[in-house]
Amino acid sequence: MTDKREETPVVPAVRAGHGVLVRARNGDVIAYDSTGLVMRLADKVIDDIALRLRDRLPVGARPSASGDASAAGADDLESLEAMLDGFDVWNIRAEGEWLRFSGRLPGRQGARDFRRNRAGGAILAEAPGALTGILGLGGPRAALASPGGAGYPFHILAPADDIGAVGHAGIERAARIDLLAALREMTHEALMAEACLDWQMDKHGSLPLFVTRVETDSSTSAAALADGVALENLLLAAANLKQAAARLGKPARIFAVTLDFALEALEGTATDYRDGMIRAMDKISTGLARLGFERPIFVARLEAGRPSLISDRIIDAQWELAWNAGGHRLVISAPSYMFSLDAHDRPTPAARRHMAEMSAAAVSAAAQRALEPDPLLDGWRCPVFHLAELDQRPAKDGSVTLRVIGRALGDLDLTPGNAPGGDQAVGFTIDGDTSGASILSVSIDAKDSQTLLIKLDRRPEGGDLRLRYGYGAAPDGVARVAVRDDWQLGAQDGRILHRWALPCRLPIHAGGAAS
Asked: pLDDT value at position 69?
């Protein structure tokens, strides 16, 4: 199927360009937008100007004690009217530092009220509730973005530092800023926001205002990521979100923090990766708490990679983190094997939207519940396999049963190995076997809907027997099976998305049950 939403949205004329000419440590000094140059003056300079002009203003032109600046906005109103020329707008007015109007502008949001700050930045939709942030941290792959703006160009924004939704790539530190800008590209975080707005639009719900920013660097280990400039910039993005919300007269909240760092982890063991990612979440949670934010929900995918490009260590590392996140609220939205890749091993445009829909669904489900002591009750959980045990005694026909204990939020279901929708089929394989054992069947235990029974023609032998699922070369025959639970979501392009089991590489133990 084709995703009509993948067409590049028409860039509206009202989304004027902007930039920075002179920048200091504490912010932008001279910037520009469609109306000309914008200068930021120190408070002492402003106070001095006000003192000098106080007695020079003609009677009737002096500002009121209430600070109402609407009478001083004639030039700003003319500039705004010029920007909006040709669009269906009405009721243009100045209120304090904001220029407000009603209109029907490009995008899926429909007719509503809008505002723009006199100091510059984007036109913003008037929206109820908090200014909501979706922030991201990761390696270079996390900076992947589709060119073009959002389907809701006045609801999905970025800090107005001329960087956009994709951050500083670890090259420099972020600047302090409290204005917002329209998007020039759609990152995973921006697509998550768009998915949420689509769902709200479908049910005639309120359309919140989102700010998105992903910060990345070139770290080669989770420990380096935790100590890198990308994490510092993420916390600066959170501080800017807080300041922008205050300028809008709104509270600020964070919907989620995305984590996209797995294939880049070239150094360290699986345990090192887990510990490094937990430390990164520790630092993010602490930094956000200092800014007054609640404990965040972290969301990530479990990356299965291409069969020839993924190592067992990377799978082990992600699996370790999936079930032991150090007390943090980490939800794994999906395994990557359900998404298609292009010739450059990047997700296709349709797959990127499906990824975002899964991430948004995972966070939304988790956010509906308080953090539970049992992670299986925490609102969202992809099926995960924890234990693989061989029955001690063979059956009468000589076959041996391998019991695979899983945990999920619903009953497990078996489907063909190519059903998840990615480029590579998946299934079960016995690694490390020297006996030539073959898989005869895969079924669900009639007594436990979250346990699989894998029937082998003989007992496998080897010093390091492992059961592999969901990554690497796909097996043939009956072992080519994909596992999911009973959850499903209709994507915007019509595809039905499921919650598929996470890839794993489980040690095979000797059990005590008879076949």
From this structure: 40
Structural tokens at position 306: 């291409």
- Asked if pLDDT for residue 159 goes beyond 90, the answer is yes
pLDDT 10s digits, 413-470: 999 999 999 988 999 999 999 999 999 999 999 999 999 999 999 999 999 999 999 9
User: What's CA 30's distance to the chain center, in Å?
Assistant: 33
273-316 residue pLDDT tens: 999 999 999 999 999 999 999 999 999 999 998 877 788 999 99
The DSSP 8-state label assigned to residue 129 in this structure reads S
According to the model, what pLDDT value does residue 24 have? 58
Give the whole-angstrom CA distance, residue 149 versus residue 101.
22
Could you give the CA distance from residue 219 to residue 39 in angstroms, rounded to a whole number?
37
Helix (H, G, I), strand (E, B) or coil at 314: helix
Separation CA 274–CA 322 (nearest Å): 9
- For residue 341, the 8-state DSSP code is B
Query: Amino acid identity, residue 3?
Result: D
The sign of the CA dihedral 331, 306, 189, 492 is negative
- Residue pointed to by tokens 């990377």: 314
Domains for the chain: give ranges and CATH numbers. 130-370 (3.40.50.1110), 384-510 (2.60.40)
- What are the residues whose beta carbons fall under 8 Å from the beta carbon of 206, sequence distance 6 or more? 127, 128, 129, 200
The C-alpha atoms of residue 153 and residue 150 are separated, in whole angstroms, by: 5
Kindly report which listed range (55-64, 135-144, 188-197) carries the lowest average pLDDT score.
55-64
The helix or strand, by DSSP H or E, that contains position 350, with its residue range, turns out to be helix 349-367
The whole-angstrom separation of Cα 213 and Cα 236 is: 10
Beta-bridge partner residues of 186 = 146
Residue ranges in 291-348 assigned as alpha helix (H)? 312-323
The amino acid at 293: F
| Helix, strand, coil percentages, rounded to 5, for the chain | 25, 30, 45
Q: What residues have CB less than 8 Å from 80, skipping those under 6 apart?
A: 92, 99, 101, 116
DSSP for 407-423, please give it. Answer: E-SS--EEEETTTT-SS
Backbone angles phi, psi at 89, to 5 degrees: -130, 160
